[in-house]
Specification:
It comes from Galbibacter orientalis DSM 19592. This protein has 330 residues and is mainly α. The chain contains 15 helices and no strands.
Length: 330
């Protein structure tokens, strides 16, 4: 009976309906005017869309079962071993760093705009380094392993990635003077939108979202980010506001005549949980073990994926540059 109750509790937690259900049961609809009430209504949207997307996949006969299987196993594992680490890291850094902020903001709307731009910059840094530093790529690669795109991919993360990401984002935001209350609001908004941009073609065929494609980062842009096509590799690191990608030259629109190929360039079995979750760590350990000298061993850890001590580099930057060069000659 305890196992059954735990199972039901996990389903409720996944769907995010516990708070909304409590409000409905109490009849206290005034609570919907509060921050907690608003989040209680928004939390269930993404999980319910995941279920809808899965059902539509069955109807369209494009179930993407391999992706759902791996992301489900990843979600279950992370619930057990990584549940509270990111929260603890965020709370700790706020307490340590807040006194050192050179400026102090308030909850005014203009400070919120400032806070979101700063948060997006911090997100860009974490995400960029997750692709450009081999050790951090080992934490991030699980998210890129699925060979199809759907909303469940938002749960495909190595358990240490969230603490790493929140450590960078929280540090930048708190030192920039963003109040913790505002930071948590931004985290909620950005997390919800960040889940939505993983929506697959079973639910939204054209991820460009019309005119929004020129204003914000859309599912189309994020599909490009998850692609292993040479043109698309290591682009679109932002989450909602794509200003930093445009500032640093990593912005790339989806081209209509170039079909997106999802996944990572390393040969792998995307249906094997061990390979998806630990494969890049095993590959890094192997390269470090066989590398000659301490300098090369350390280089494999901090240099971009694809770097080689032999000089035969296959980094995303080099692959993309070669592709662009060849295309310009056609």
């Amino acid at each position: 009976m305890d196992v059954f109750n735990t199972f039901i509790e996990e389903i409720i937690n996944f769907l995010g309906i516990s708070q909304a259900w409590d409000i409905l049961q109490s009849g206290n609809y005034e609570a919907l005017r509060t921050y907690e009430g608003i989040t209680a209504l928004i939390f269930p949207i993404i999980p319910l869309l995941i279920l809808l997307e899965f059902i539509l996949g069955l109807i369209y006969k494009k179930p993407q079962t391999k992706v759902y299987k791996i992301t489900f196993l990843t979600y279950v594992l992370n619930r057990f071993i990584g549940r509270f680490i990111a929260i603890a890291v965020t709370t700790f850094l706020i307490g340590v760093l807040e006194p050192y902020a050179p400026i102090q903001t308030s909850l005014k709307w203009y400070w919120f705009l400032y806070g979101y731009v700063v948060w997006e910059f911090a997100h860009f840094l974490y995400h960029y380094w997750g692709h450009k530093v081999r050790l951090f790529w080992c934490l991030h690669s699980t998210h890129h392993a699925p060979e199809d795109m759907n909303l469940s991919v938002t749960h495909a993360h190595f358990f240490l990635e969230a603490p790493y990401a929140d450590a960078i984002r929280t540090t930048v935001c708190i030192l920039a003077g963003i109040k913790p209350e505002m930071l948590f609001i931004i985290m909620f908004i950005d997390g919800t939108y960040g889940a939505f941009i993983h929506v697959g073609e079973n639910l939204i065929k054209d991820g460009r979202l019309g005119f929004l494609n020129k204003i914000i980062l859309t599912p189309s842009h994020h599909r490009v980010h998850h692609a292993k096509n040479p043109l698309y590799m290591d682009t679109n690191f932002c989450n909602l506001l794509n200003i930093w990608d445009k500032v640093f030259g990593t912005f790339q629109n989806e081209e209509k005549n170039l079909k997106i190929e999802y996944g990572i360039t390393r040969k792998m079995n995307s249906g094997n949980f061990i390979d998806v979750y630990f494969g890049e760590i095993f590959a890094l350990c192997k390269d470090v073990y066989h590398a000659p000298g301490i300098k090369n061993k350390l280089a494999y850890i901090v240099m971009p994926p694809g770097w080689s001590h032999t000089g035969e580099h296959k980094t995303a930057k080099i692959v993309r540059q070669e592709f662009l060069k060849e295309r310009s000659m056609d």
